[in-house]
Structure formats: structure tokens, C-alpha cells
Amino acid sequence: MADHLPPSLLEACVVVGASSDKLREVYQAANSNGTPELPSLEPEVLHVLAPPFISRQQAESEAVRPFVRRRRSFIRKKREPPPFTASTLSQASSIFAGGGGGGAGGGGGGGNEDISVPKDIDLTALPQLCFPGGLHLSREQKEEEFHFLVFTDVFGNQTHGVVMQCYRPIMEGTNYYQNGTGPSRFSKLYCAYGFCVVSKHPYYTALKDCLSCVLVQLRTCRLSDLEERMKEFSAKLALVPIPPPGQLHVMFALRPLTIVLPSREDKDHPAVDLDLHLPFLCFRAQQLLQVISCLLQEQRVVLFSANWARLTLVAESLLLFLRPLSWQQPYVPVLARGMLDFLMAPTAFLMGCHISHFEEVAAETDDLILINIDEGCVSTSCSESVDLPEIPLAAADCFTQRCLSLQMHFDLHQCHHASCSDINEQRAQRRAWQRNLNHDIQRITLELIVNIFRDVSSHLNYEHRVFNSEEFLKTRESGEQLFYKKVLETHIFHSFLKDRLNRKMDAFTRMELNTRSETQKMKAMVEIPRRPTMQEIQARRNSSITENRLNKRLGMSLPNLGDDRPISFPRHTVLSRIIIPDLLRAAPKPVNVFKLPDFPAALSFHSVQSYYSELILQLGKAIFCVPPENSALLARFYYLRGFINTLCSRRLDALSDFQNLYKTDTAIFPTQLVTWLVDALRREERQQADRRPELKRLILKVKTENEKLLVKPDDHVKKFVLPRTHLHQEEFVRCVQESGIVKDIATIHRLFDALTVGHQKLVDPELFRDFYTFWKETEAEAQDVNLPSEVIEHLDNSECVYKLSSCVKTSHGVGKIAMTQKRLFLLTEGRPGFLEITKFRDIQEVKISSAPFLLLRIPSLRIQTSSRPEMFEANLKTETDLWNLVVKEMWAGRKMAEQHKDPQYVAQALTNVLLMDAVVGCLQTQRSIFAASKLAYFDKVKHEVPMMVPKTTSETLKHKINPSLDLAEPQTVHVLLYTPGQLSCSDSEGNGNPKLWVALSGGRVIVFDAASWSMLQDCVQVGASQLNCMLGLFQEQVWIGSEDSVIYIIDTRSMSCNKQLTEHRHEVTGFALDSRDHQNCLQPYSCSCDGTILHWDSSSLKVKRQFQINCNRLSSIQIHDGTLWCCCGDSIVELRKNGAPQRRIALPDDLRSMPSCFSSFVLILEQGQLWTGCADSGELCLWHIKDHSRPFKRISLPGTTGVTCMIRVKNQIWVGCRGSSGVGGQYDGQLRSQVLVLDPESHAVVKELQAHSDSVQTLCSAEDRYVMSGSACRDGKIAIWKVE
User: Fold this and answer.
1) I need a surface site. Which of 138, 773, 1009, 1015 has the fewest CB within 10 A?
2) Edge-to-edge strands, sheet with 592-595
3) Which DSSP helix (H) or strand (E) runs through 872?
4) Residues 354 and 133: beta-carbon distance below 8 Å
5) Which UniProt keyword terms apply here (predicted)?
6) How many CA atoms lie within 13 Å of 1012's alpha carbon, on the beta-carbon side?
7) Per-residue confidence band for 877, with pLDDT thresholds at 50, 70 and 90
8) Residues 1228-1248 pLDDT 10s
9) Does residue 333 have a cis bond before it (omega within 30 degrees)?
10) What's the confidence (pLDDT) of residue 643?
11) pLDDT band at residue 388 using 50, 70 and 90 as cut-offs
């Protein structure tokens, strides 16, 4: 059971010192010889105290001694302690690894002695770590000292220790002198004892406070009573539960202090219970950046200090500064005097030792980074300076500026406050100040990490788990290249990459998303090949980066081709475009503190049970007092109460608490503990659980999860390598996607056809190599484009030069033709100048001609444009055919983009053009132009499909967006939900803007900012099944109904899904919201396909009522004036308030004869109209619900084969339809499905809107101003329509 339970505060308490026999011997020798020098002693374990301290059996058999239960013991016989040896570094890394039958490394006192050895602790090295400088005697009393330990096992699991050293007189407790006459003739000697409290969690400050409290008793107690005092102290700490992740801290009283255990921020983050500003007091910002750089590059780092406590505190702070990157190498922040040989290890490490060893370590060991904490300096074992690549300048400057704003002196903060007369009140003020300071420091260091690794995600291929490191390096500035090259090879970065490829939503991801500039957000909307914009070229010139950019350009972009330097480019020269200052000044989230009951005076079994009962009672009161909307706090109380109920063997009560926890916050749900509880249920308990529906569901879910095959998640990271064998189409798709050239599968298929023209359908590896090389060369050359300022002035900031011709003669003079995403222009020869040829939207005709030259005819390209009467002609010679394809493709792509209001068409046309260029460049054959023509997709569509979009569609269509942009293939848009903005929201994370929530296949949810239509969240994973419906609640939650019968609840602020409602037994198909005033409380309803309707309490997330309808399939529900209307497949049913059917409108007889059903309906109560649509019928039925004698009316819908969805917007009915399918199910550009707008009064179709090439799946309204339509996977786009 202990393996499944979350640990309590105490793991073990170990008392270390010298044996009584040795002390007696030393005392006698010192006073007999009169020598001033006192010998050093070998420390050994004297007592080990570990839970459980009490049991029911002991309560009966050991009523007199109720404190300690020894889990496992051994007999220590009188012998000399074995010397500590450490031949390998792994021995240091596993100091606290499971020791099995290991014993204490030290000699014993006279006779035999029982020592309790906890199962998972090896005590071999602990004595030396408790006295890292050695165990010394003293002739005078010394003050107590503390230091801190971290033990890491071979699996990377850490255990933490806090050590208190205090001195006691040797003569006390000995019986060597009789009648009290001996001591007067001898000098008094003192020996140090070490008290080490071991915990699984890094509560350094709290455990130090605990030891300080027990110190008051230790100073006055006799040595013979020391063990009992420590037993009592340890047993109390074993009663303290660790708070769950979140904003609930635990407080307890250990007289005379009140001690607080801060909770972890989340389950992946350690608790922070130390002063994070200590490194800032020891080092300047520049030195801190040096240290962080060394850790990121995984150097061999050694910390030095004369104060043992500083070593661990500074080391722990530095590792927290790296978050979310996690140190993967050996970590021993305190090395005892006998462990210095660990520094000879060849691997990277982070260790700490006493400053007295500085010269010795520097002389004996090479290539160490030596950090002197006391003097605040960083050097190497070879020189006084550090010759390592520095952190990128822009990120370092931002960090340095942020550090200036830190308020790191509590006295300055407190000088205007009244003095506290209560020590606990003063400590509370200090804790609050320290918490705010720690929050600011963590935000600043996280910002540093985000600025360093911001662009990593742009070079990831999630489908194939590839990080294109060469491409990433190529975008770095030249001075940063070596730093990134070293960091990218480290284990710490590799672990970070795994989290990015797993789309982990952690603090790094949230800050990176929230601090994106507008330019970065807009770039995320369309996938355009990377080229420097005019703005970036100008910034490069202004920043005086004028190094020779025409050196070996291929560089690191070519795997397997050499080790040339990569091309650099200043990506983010102005960090103000990246960082949002208000975000960093945000205050930490408010916390709640739960105070534990006072510890029982006598720790017997019954008193401990009474203590737990009181604790459960207090937790129940706290749960009752928490407002239902504060579900996060409620979940933490349920967690604690479930844990305590488990300790008390109240298994059913514990399961009930964990069931409530599961509904409120799945992020902290203890799956292993609940599984153990279910397996531990006795027969009568299992029968009781089966009679409680909520427990039965929880047990079923746990069993189902455990029965699933345990598939290890794919966490590998690949680097792109050029192929060495011939490629079939599937292998070719994978290689191209891994290379980062293009992701779209349809485009890659066309590229495959182009490269295999006239050959068998296999791509030769040499051909792929040539194609890849040409693509990368062209990309690198584009980085070297250095246009004159006179030219840049005529171009938009966002324009990039994508293609440049050789110098040719044209009708406007001699020069080079340049192409951007918007226009063609001529770079004139001689004095460089700008002459616009045409914008792509103004082109009227493009054709190949020939121009006379002496006796020859030279191929030329002619372009007729609407902006000028004369035709432009360029003698492009051998480039004519390619430029003809290029210009026509860009012209067609621009036309389609403007007509469809979809900027992605231009981006796709650009990709096609660059692929054509690479195909012609690598083939170098007579058929190269024909091969390139395979990629002229939009020009082909223009000739095969009518390009003209109907006028009504063009006037009504506002914009189109692609939610599948980051995916290899378009996904079906299953559900759309618009949530309005919050005018009162003043935070800087964009929560105040309206949002569009998009449910794609496989449980993927995409979130757009509905103000700018930029993507806010590229993936919130909600289960793995199809999502059927969504509902916005309180502007704080989004409810999502899934095919797996679960209702998932997304928190709109954190964009996380930590709540689930599992009361439905079948597929959840619809939601309805009763917005009438029920004491200002919204009333949500949900339905499932089996006919179940649940009425929810939106605050407590509990079911208030349940209805059941007999039907084939319940697909949706609506609520009008408090009455539920249900779409039941073959009928529309109106329900009474008690859930009984009041009215049923059946499917028309002619549709009953065919496999058809109602797909959707719209109710207009004021006009007494019910409009219904069927999935397999191209017509609507109008029913008169106020006059049953009137027959229903059929309204034919032109060009449709079925109705998929309907909504009412103002006084209109918008209908999503299914049209005819394309040939072979392939996308051919033709608009096949319609959105129809009907007038309920005239019963006529007033608008036929065409914007999708696949069936319209869903419709939603944005405050009756816009309507959004989403389509199936052959199109996969969202159209935004204006409402008139």
C-alpha cells in the first residue's frame, strides 16, 4: 500500500554521530595526555526512525511504548566502521537507492542494538554527508548549523534531506565517573550530532523550521532521552500529508512555530520551498547567465562555498531556473571530503564541495567550470575566464534588464509597516513576500528560456517526430551558432524536444503562445516557405550585420554533405515584439491555506485515529464552505480527504472522494492509488459500491483503463537523413515531410509524379539528393538578397523575394525580374532601381512569344496587365518556359485567394512555384518543364473548373481559415463554437478576445482569436474519439460531448481539460442551455444517443434530473421557453417538464420508406414554425405547431442531396447542405456544397452560398453578426460569412 500512497512529509529521520565507546575512549585519552589537538571521528548511524510508527496490533501489545514500529531491523555488533569508498560515480548517484538489506556504515556501541532501516534507503554514505567536513570534537559549545542534501537514484528519482548539526557535552550520560567527583578534574569536551530529516519532496525551509522547533527540546534533554524525543518528533511529521499540486498549501503547528508546506504549481513541477533570490545576491546577472549557459551546454560544473548550506540552495535554484528543461546528468550538490574523486568522472555533472578544496580541484582536474559562490565569480580549471559560447545576446539583454526590476530586500519592502509582535505573523509576512519574489524570478527565468528556444517549434515535424536541427541552426545569428550547436547535442535539450513533440501544454508553451508578436501569429495562419521579409532585410542593414553572406551557403542545411558553417539570420532583433511586459508583471495566483489539527499529545493508535477523524471532519467543513464555482480548490480538498480516508481504511469513502475529484480536476487524479483501492475492496464493500451508481462507474472506468494494452508512448526524436535507397510513394512522402520542405500530402504526391515522369514510379536516392540540395541552395541564396533601400521603399514590409531571374533584356530595360508573393518587378541594371511590372491580381494574359535577335528568334515571355496599356516582354531565353509556369501559377493562386477570401491559396501557389524551380534545377533534361507542369495545380484548376465565384457568395464571404494547417491532411470540422469576448477582462493573455473553438477528428480542438482570426491554440487534446457538440458556459468553461460518452470541460483561461463528466453511458450528441434567470445560474442539459437527457447543476457539476426518451437515436436537443425539443431520428419530440413526451412530429411517410432521418431542426415559436431537415433529402419540411390542422409544407433546396445542420440567425434560417461528390472523392477545386439562407416568412431561399468542396458539417453564429461554416475532410476549411 505504501507504494501507492502519496508520501507524507517524513520519509525517515536519521541520527548520526560517534559511538559512545569511541567517545569514552577519546575523552579519556584527551584528558590523560593533555594534548591540545583533538582527533576527528568517523560518523556512524545511531538511530533510524521511519514510519509507520504505530499499528493496531502494537496498540494492543505495546500500550506503554506506542511510538515506533520497526519495519526491518538488523543487529549491529561492536566493530570498526568500514571506510567509505567510491570507485564509480553511480555510487554517488544512488546514495539513497533501494538498499535492500544494507546496514548502517559504522561501528556500534557496547552490546547489540536494533536499528530500523527503511526499505528504500541505503545508509552507507549518509554519515559522511551529514558531516561533509568530518566529525570534530570541540572544547567549547558551538552554534547549531544546517545544510541540505539531495540524493538521486539510478532512475533519476530524488530524495531530499535537511541536516542539523548540534554539539553536546561528551560526559553527559556516561557512567565512567561515579558519585559526580570525576568531572571536576577534567576539561569539558563537546561532540557534534547530526539529525537528518529525509523527505521525498524538497521542503528545505519547512524541514529546517521543524528541526529548529525540536532543537529547543534537544538542548535541555538528556542524551538517554534523545531517541524518544526524536521518535515523537518523527511520528508527528509522519502525520503531515503533502498538499496536492495547485493553489492549496498545508499549515501545521509545531510549537513554537507555525509551518507551511507550499504546494507544487503542477504535477510536473517540484515544490519551491527555498529563497530563489539567493543566486542573485551571490552573482551579478552576467555571471548568472554564464552559469546558466554552462548548464544548458552540460558542462562539468562544480560549486564552491565555505558554507555547506549555500551549495544545495544555490544548486537547486539554478536547476529551477532551467525549467522546463530538466537536468539529466549526475547531480551531487554536497560532496563530503572523501568523495572528491567523483570529480574525476568523464561525464557532465553538477556537484558542490567546500571552498578549501578549490585549489586542489583546479590543479588536479581539467575542463571543469568552477563557480565560487562566496565571491560570485566563474572560472575554469584551466584559466580565470570562461571560454564558452554565451547565451544569445538579445535574450541575455532582456534577462539583464528584467533583473534590475527585482525587489530582493525584505527590509526595504517592510520598512513602512508596523513591527510585528508575533513571530508567526512576521513569518507569514516574510513568506508572502518571498512567494511574490519567487514568482517574479521564475517568470523572468522562464522568459529567458522561452527567448532562447522560441523558434524550436517552427522546425518540428510532429507526425514523424523529426527536429530539423540544421534548419533551426541556419536561422540563428553567426555569433549564436556555436552556443546552439552545443546545446542541441545535450541530453537536457533532447528531453525538452520530447515534450515539444508531445505537444505538452506547460508553462513554456503557454508563455511562448502568449508572447507571440502579431507577425508571428499571422505567419502561423498560412504556411509560407521561409524567406526574409523587406522589414527583416532593413533590420539586418540597420543593425550593421554586414558580414560576408556569400560564403559557403549550403552549410548545416545539408545533412551528410559536409560540415560548413550555416547561414545566419537575425530572427528577433527587437525583443519587444516577443515579450509582453504586462504578462511578466502578473501577480501570482492567490493561494488558500488549510491548517491541520493540533498533533495528539500521546501518539497511540487510538489518538492517531482520532487525529485523522478530526482532520476528515475539518476537510468536510472546508468542502462545504467552498463555493461550487471554485472547483480547483474543491478538487484539492477532495484529494486530501480521499488520501486520509485511505489511511484510515475507509475505502468506500475514499473512492467517493476520488470520484468527486475526477469530475472536478483529472490532472491530479491518483490513478494508481484508486486502482489499488478498487483491488483492495472486500466482498461486502464491493457489493456496497455496486449499489452506488457513481462508485460503480468509477470502478468500471478504472477496470477498463487497466484492461487496455499498455502501449509505451513514442518519445523518440529523429533527425532528418537523406535516403539511400529507392523511394516508393509512401516513403517519398515521409522523406519530404521529414525534410521540412512541405507537409501537404496532395502536394507531395504531385511532386512525386513530377520527379518520376518517364520513369518507373520510384525516386532514385541521387535524384532526391539533387532535388534537396537545389531546394536548400535556393533557400540559402534567398537569405543573401540585399536589395537597395530605394527598392525596399516600394515593397510592403511583409513581402519576400522568392525568385530572381538572370539579367535579361526587357521592354523596360535590362535587369533582373524578381517575384514576391504579390508582384513582379524589375531590378534595373547599372544604378539599381525599381520598376514594377505588375501585381498578380492585375494580370490579364501570359504567353510565350519570340523576339528577333539578328537572324535568330529568342524565346520571350509576354505579360498583359490592366495597370498599363502596353504589354511587358522579357527575353528570358532558356528560362522562358519555367517563368511562364511560375507566373501563371501565381496569377491563378492570387485569383483564387481573392475570390475565396483565403490567403492560403497564395501560400500554396508559392510552394508549388518553388517546387517547380527545384524540379527543373535537379532534372536538367528536356522533359524538366513537362515534369514541373505537374505541380502547376492552380493553373490547371483554373482551366478545368470555372474560376468565378458567384456574386452573392463573394459579397457575403468575409474570410476563410484552415484549422488543419499544421497537419499533413485536411481534417473534418465536426463542431464549431463561438464564445464572446469579455470587456471587463484586463489580463494580457488575450482572454478578453472572442474565440472560435474548432473540433477536428480524433479529439483535437483548435482555438482561434475571433478578432484577428489568428490561431491561439494549435491543439487541445480532448480524448481520442470524435467530438459531437460544444457548449460555452460562464465564459470560463467549454463543455464538449464526445463519442466515448464523456463530457470534457475545458478551462478557457488555462486551455486545459482537467474535468470530465461521466454520467452518460453512450455517445454524447447534444447540449442545450436554459438561459432564463434561475438565481443567476445557467441550466445546461446534455443528451446521448440512447435517449438519455441529463439536467446539470452548473456549479456543482451534479445531475439534477434525468429523462429517458424511447427512440432510435437522439441526435440533438434545444430548449425554448423552458421546454425541451428533441431530434429523435424518426421524429421531433416536445417534452413536458417532468420529461414525458407532450408532442411528437413524425418523419413524413415517403421518407420513412427509405433509410432517412431528421438531421436537424429550427423552432420559431413566435411564428409557430418548426423547420426540419433530413440527412438524405434535399428539402426542408415546415410544420405549423400552433395549428395542427394545417399540413406541413415542403421547401425544395436547389443543388443539395441532404441537410446536415441548421441554425437561426436573426430572422433567417441558415442551412448547411451536402452536395454531389467529386470524381474519385478527390478535391478538384469545385464548390460542391452550399450554405443556404431562407426567409421564414416567404419560405424562400434568399441566398445560395458556395465556399466548400465537401459537405458542410456544422454552423455557428457569432453574435448574429457572422456565421461560420465548417466542412468535411476533402475541404476541411471554415468559411466566415457576413449576416445582413
Assistant:
1) 138
2) 257-261, 248-254, 592-595
3) strand 872-874
4) yes
5) Guanine-nucleotide releasing factor, WD repeat
6) 15
7) confident
8) 445 578 899 999 888 899 999
9) no
10) 93
11) confident
- Nearest-Å Rg of the Cα atoms of the chain is 37
What's the 3-state SS for 1036-1048? CEEEEEECCCCEE
Q: How confident is the model at residue 1051 (pLDDT cuts 50, 70, 90)?
A: confident
DSSP output for 210-236 = HHHHHHHHHHHS-GGGHHHHHHHHHHH
On the question of a cis peptide bond just before residue 256, with omega within 30 degrees of 0, the verdict is: yes
List, as one string, the DSSP characters of 622-683. HHHHS-TT-HHHHHHHHHHHHHHHHHTT-HHHHHHHHHHHHHH-GGG--HHHHHHHHHH--H
SS3 labels along 816-864: EEEECCCEEEEEECCCCEEEEEEEHHHEEEEEEEEEEECCEEEEEEEEE
How is residue 393 written as a grid cell? Answer: 545576446
Q: How far apart are CA 1160 and CA 1176, in angstroms?
A: 12
Question: In the prediction, which pLDDT does 453 show?
Answer: 94
> How confident is residue 1018, by pLDDT bands cut at 50, 70 and 90?
confident
Count the neighbouring beta carbons within 10 Å of the beta carbon of residue 870.
Answer: 9
Is the alpha carbon torsion for 22, 24, 27, 32 positive or negative?
Answer: negative
The secondary structure of 465-505 as a DSSP string is TEE-HHHHHHTS-GGGHHHHHHHTTSHHHHHHHHHHHTT--
1056 exposure class (CB count in 10 Å sphere: 0-12, 13-18, 19+): middle
Residues making up the chain, counted from first to last: 1284
Task: Render 57-94 in DSSP notation, one character per residue.
Answer: HHHHH-SSS-S---SSEEEEPS-PPPPP---SHHHHHT
* Residues linked to residue 826 through DSSP beta bridges, in sequence order: 817, 835
| Residue from 1161, 1107, 1096 nearest 1136 by CA | 1107
SS3 content of the chain, % helix, strand, coil (to 5): 35, 25, 40
3-state secondary structure of 522: helix
Non-local (6+) Cβ contacts of 159 within 8 A are 11, 96, 121, 150, 151, 153, 198, 199, 200
The single residue listed with the C-alpha cell 413524413 is: 1148
- C-alpha to C-alpha distance for 245 and 670, rounded to whole angstroms: 12
C-alpha cell at 236: 508527528
Question: Cα dist. 846→391, 862, 863, 912 in Å?
Answer: 51, 6, 5, 18
Q: Which residue intervals of 945-1097 are DSSP H helices?
A: 951-956
Share of the chain above pLDDT 70, in %: 83
d(CA 310, CA 132): 13
Assess contact for 875 and 851: CB atoms under 8 A.
yes
DSSP symbol at 14: E
With contact defined as beta carbons under 8 Å apart, do 1059 and 663 qualify?
A: yes
For the segment 435-457, what is each residue's pLDDT rounded down to a tens digit? 999 999 999 999 999 999 988 98
pLDDT score recorded for residue 423: 86
Closest Cα to residue 1071, out of 1131, 1117, 1134? 1117
Residues β-bridged to residue 851 = 858
Judged against a pLDDT cut of 60, whether residue 776 lies above it is answered with yes
Query: Could you tell me the pTM of the whole model?
Result: 0.83
Which three three-digit cell numbers place residue 172? 553527559
Q: Judging by beta carbons within 10 Å of its beta carbon (0-12, 13-18, 19+), is residue 161 exposed, middle or buried? A: buried
Specify the pLDDT at position 757.
85
Alpha helices in 901-1055 (DSSP H): 904-923, 928-933, 937-944, 951-956
Please give the backbone phi and psi of residue 934, each rounded to the nearest 5 degrees, phi first: -65, -20
